[in-house]
Design goal:
The protein has 1027 residues and is an alpha+beta fold. It has 24 helices and 50 strands. The longest helix has 20 residues, at 740-759.
């Protein structure tokens, strides 16, 4: 526990180590001149023969206690007190003969002086006296102890106040500050303060942030941090306006830290706050390992949304760059907040709010209301974000439930506190239009608007509704729209509409507000609010959300590895669990925009409000979601979610089938109740089959899911939505004309459907779809040894394997290997396992100089996008698993090892957790080339980067408690598996059955720096036995 010393008059006793005599501690309170009464208490204790072993005090009590601690007895202090001129001591006056000549005349003009603020308002002093004369007396009485730094080593151990140093009030002028009552001699020497923070137990720290007092008249410019381990760190150039000064250093294990001022200007120098940050370590909570800054300079609009729960409807962020991709949304490089958006689903955003103060013209838009902020005072983690808006001198904190964002504002200036509510701007990749806002009471407004002009098709207009409640009364509302500013309004509407909520002067006051969202109606938004957040306890919601994230992250606990690897791993999990947002209200209602007709993949169909089935307790049996494309999730999310969060696969599977029931099609990427038609094929098949084959499909009937998939693999279904004729050609000739990428995607999806059909006993269907899945071979070019696109007439579209034409965000070098279900055939066509591995190895060597990252369709291997993210695991299927072990480690380190704002996922598109999931699976040493869709679902085994991995199994889906992977002799050089044991028995396979995982158990791996070429046989898809 961090503490500073603030005490009342208390006498307490402590047994010594032997329990022989009770030790006595005395705590003295303040009280100005009345505080000298403590001397009488000391007299009584002395006369009673009661020794004082410890003494502490605050204000006047600290002066009495300090003198007693250094050797003054009660009678000596009594004599001192009786000799003092207390009227002078407490007046803060200076004897006239000590004043400079220029001040002697001025002092006689006024009976009393009162400080004046910059805006000429009278400022009442915060205390009765400043204490200058008391300080001078005390300084004289303690000569010989001025340089003593350890109060515990005085004749009697002593502790005194350093109040307001860690009170959480930061950058408030003359409030919540710690300052010395200093003096400056005529020759310029200052009395400089120090303060110390203590903890009950040793802690590891590596960062301290200091805030000077806000006043520019008193400036603590520099000092020294002393630590209990004997080390010290110099601090220079502390800003003079209260801005943060960040001090970073190698981790130290300490019990206390002392800051000593060494330079400053003005009499009453001090600090507004000291913030001490722990080093990440064994006792660090999972949320503390996440670094939301990673690759924010290159992410998409919705990439960094801290105020959210896993898969929550709301996912709020402070956005600093208003663009969709390539560093949109929260971008670390840009230090101006443009606003705070509540919903940041992949094609839907808003409403936007902005805390402001003073005069702001909202018709100027974001350029007119934006504010700078500093990362040094920022705290950002899953579920919570804090920053300071420099322009408005306002602290903003926000957290969230599933459907409600919760803000806590502290306006530190004395200007009118206001809140802009913007429902008419362009946010990311959509516009807010046709908005309306209405004041319901002095603390509530409601609103709704349409989101339009989005990329990638889907509904032309999609509605968002909300309710905003404030903890303080709204004194005035001004509205604005495309027609200008409307003062004193109760309602406003338009295509560029908004409101300015004016709370009046709230200097130093706290304002809370809650925004509940709904995709259906305002009434449902209110019900979401009443159900999830009926109170105003910000810290409770912050803690609840933090606990939820800790529980989700804690399902996979890792040990060993570097600090950077821990940071990256839990950041990977955060992204994998953050996206794919709920659109269902707490009462089960959700929007349906699936009706056509569609023109250029867009529909103007109005919203239908539907309701998911409810359970016996009145809760939805599953949720509906909006989500980015599921394209190629068979190599990332479908695997990762199934390990530790199988309920996510189950819930999403029920959602996918409900979409198909509503509109006939299985979505590729769902636009909040509608279709988007992003990417190609029918990727929902992969998720549904994976869920079913692992026996996780509980919320929807598998037979019903099968029929929906089968319908979407026929002409007119989602598989070939763009061209039914292309699918007919594929069925007849084995490939999609002009597109090899679609061919291989369709083939894998057909293969997955065949596995589901076979498991269900539908043998004729199984044979049909398996035949379709294996008809891709006409696209194999024997001369080049890779798959290439063909025209409808059978001619090659081109023969350049690095040309992306005829592929989907890929080329022949990257995507030939994606025929995952039929790898034995590909190995055969390439001339056998050695030739297969040699060709693939060549591709990885070519890609190494660029860290295995290329732009779409570029390069030999690219882990910046989905098409090639299974490639490193394929050497096992050519009989050389040691190359899989080597290249997986290389890709993990170079493509996914970065933990800076510009690196981490290849820099193109993290895709709502897909690249994060690939990175996480590489860290765990588990994968599945076949997407866990095989007849017996299995995982590919490679070398983890951690020494121990514990995966907690969800008992609603799995019979076991946990699955543990122990890695022996692990290091950066030791990447090759020497041997393995599963539950104490030798394991010779490079594959692990899902059924063994589900029962729980232990996998032991021993690593070395040289390949063991005899380990890692294929249990499934062996090329020698499946010709």
């Amino acid at each position: 526990m961090k503490r500073i010393f603030v005490f009342l008059l208390v006498l307490f006793v402590i047994l010594d180590a032997q329990g022989q005599r009770k030790k006595v501690g005395l705590v003295l309170s303040g009280g100005g001149a009345k505080g000298v009464a403590h001397i009488g208490v000391l007299k009584v204790l002395e006369e009673a023969g009661i020794p004082i072993d410890y003494i502490a005090g605050t204000s006047m009590g600290s002066l009495v206690g300090a003198l007693y601690a250094i050797g003054y007895d009660a009678h000596a202090m009594d004599s001192l007190v009786r000799r003092q001129d207390w009227m002078f001591l407490l007046s803060d006056k200076v004897y006239r003969y000590n004043l400079p000549f220029s001040e002697k005349e001025e002092t006689e003009k006024y009976l009393v002086s009162v400080p004046i603020k910059n805006n000429r308002e009278i400022k009442i002093p915060s205390g009765f006296i400043s204490g200058q004369n008391v300080y001078n007396l005390f300084s004289d009485l303690t000569i010989g102890y001025h340089d003593s730094l350890d109060f515990k080593k005085l004749p009697i151990p002593f502790a005194c106040v350093a109040s307001n140093l860690v009170d959480g009030k930061v950058m408030y002028a003359n409030e919540g500050e710690w300052a010395c009552k200093g003096s400056v001699t005529s020759w310029g020497v200052m009395h400089l303060p120090w303060a110390q923070l203590d903890w009950d137990n040793e802690i590891d720290v590596d960062r301290i942030v200091l805030y000077d007092r806000v006043s520019e008249l008193e400036h603590l410019a520099g000092g020294t941090l002393h630590f209990s381990d004997g080390s010290k760190v110099s601090v220079t150039a502390i800003p003079n306006d209260g801005s943060p000064k960040e001090v970073c250093f190698p981790s130290k294990k300490i019990k206390w830290v002392r800051f000593e001022a060494t330079d400053g200007a003005g009499k009453n120098i001090g600090l507004s706050e000291i913030e001490v940050f722990r080093t990440r370590g064994e006792n660090t909570e999972y949320v503390e390992w996440v670094d939301p800054y990673i690759e924010t300079t290159r992410g998409r609009w919705f990439y960094c949304t801290p105020a959210a729960r896993p898969f929550g409807m709301v996912a709020a962020h402070a956005f600093t760059r208003n663009k969709n991709q390539g560093g949109g949304g929260y971008n670390y490089n840009f230090n101006e907040v443009l606003g705070f958006s509540q919903v940041n689903e992949w094609m839907v955003s808003g409403p936007n709010i902005m805390p402001v103060s003073g005069g702001v013209n909202p018709t100027q838009g974001m350029d007119g209301w934006k504010s700078e902020f500093k990362h040094e005072s920022e705290i950002i983690q899953p579920g919570y974000h804090r920053l300071f808006l420099d322009r408005y001198k306002t602290w903003v904190e926000y957290t969230a439930t599933d459907r409600v964002t919760f803000y806590r504002l502290n306006y530190t200036s004395d200007k009118n506190a206001k809140l802009l509510v913007d429902i008419g701007s362009v946010l990311g990749n959509c516009s807010m239009d046709k908005g309306a806002l209405l004041r319901i009471s002095d603390k509530r407004i409601v609103g709704e608007f349409m989101t339009t002009e989005r990329f990638w098709g889907g509904p032309d207009s999609l509605k968002l509704c909300f309710v905003l409640d404030c903890s303080v009364p709204i004194k005035k509302i001004d509205g604005w729209s495309e027609k200008g500013i409307n003062p004193d309004v109760e309602a406003i509407s338009g295509n560029n509409a908004g409101m300015v909520l004016d709370f009046g002067e709230l200097e130093g006051s706290e304002v809370l507000f809650k925004i509940a969202l709904s995709y259906t109606t305002v009434d449902n938004a209110i019900e979401n609010l009443n159900t999830e957040l009926p109170h105003w306890d910000f810290e409770k919601i912050r803690k609840d959300t933090r606990d939820i994230w800790n529980e989700m992250f804690g399902r996979i606990a890792v040990e060993g590895g570097s600090q950077a690897q821990h940071i990256k791993f839990y950041t990977d999990l955060w992204h994998a669990l953050l996206g794919r947002h709920k659109i269902t209200d707490v009462n089960g209602y959700y929007p349906d925009y699936t009706a056509g007709p569609y023109v250029n993949k867009r529909t103007a169909a109005p919203m239908k409000i539907r309701r998911v089935p409810m359970d016996k307790t009145g809760r939805p049996t599953f949720n509906m979601y909006g989500f980015d494309g599921l394209w190629l999730t068979q190599w990332n999310l479908n695997i990762l979610w199934g390990l530790a969060w199988p309920e996510v696969l189950d819930d999403l599977s029920a959602c996918l089938i409900q979409y198909a029931d509503n509109g006939g099609l299985l979505p590729r990427g769902a636009c909040s109740g509608g279709y988007s038609f992003i990417m190609t094929g029918c990727p929902a098949t992969n998720m549904l089959v994976s869920t079913y084959m692992k026996d996780l499909m509980k919320k929807t009937k598998p037979s019903h899911a099968y029929e929906a998939i089968k319908r979407n693999h026929a002409p007119g279904g989602m598989m070939s939505y763009e061209s039914a004729d292309d699918l007919k050609f594929y069925v007849k000739k084995g490939y999609c004309p002009g597109n090899a990428g679609k061919t291989l995607e369709w083939a894998f999806q057909d293969w997955g459907l065949s596995r589901m059909a076979l498991r269900m006993g539908k043998k004729s269907d199984a044979a049909l779809y398996e035949k379709r899945s294996r008809a891709w071979t006409p696209l194999f070019n024997k001369n080049i040894g890779l798959i290439l696109p063909k025209k409808e007439n059978g001619e090659w579209l081109h023969t350049d394997p690095l040309n992306g034409q005829g592929w989907v965000e890929a080329n022949a070098w990257q995507a030939t290997w994606s025929v995952s279900h039929d790898l034995p055939k590909l190995v055969e066509l390439m001339g056998g396992g050695d030739a297969f591995c040699e060709k693939l190895n060549y591709a990885f060597k070519q890609a190494r100089p660029t860290d295995f990252v290329h732009a779409y369709s570029g390069g030999y291997v690219s882990y910046a996008n989905q098409p090639g993210c299974s490639n490193a695991h394929l050497f096992t299927y050519g009989g050389q698993p040691w190359l899989t072990q080597y290249w997986v480690r290389q890709v993990k380190e170079h493509a996914y090892g970065g933990i800076t704002p510009d690196k981490g996922y290849g820099g193109h598109d993290e895709d709502e957790g897909q690249m994060g999931a690939v990175s996480a699976l590489m860290s765990l040493g588990l994968f599945s080339v076949t997407g866990t869709e095989y007849d017996s679902p299995y995982y590919d085994i490679t070398s983890p980067i951690f020494d121990k991995i514990t995966i907690k199994l969800n008992k609603d889906y799995y019979s076991g408690d946990e699955f543990v992977i122990n890695v022996h002799n692990n290091s950066a050089d030791n990447c090759y598996i020497q041997k393995a044991e599963l539950n104490g028995t030798d394991w010779i396979y490079a594959q692990l059955d899902h059924v063994d995982f589900a029962k729980g158990g232990t996998l032991n791996l021993w690593l070395g720096n040289m390949p063991n070429k005899s380990w890692g046989k294929l249990k499934y898809l062996g090329f020698k036995t499946n010709k």
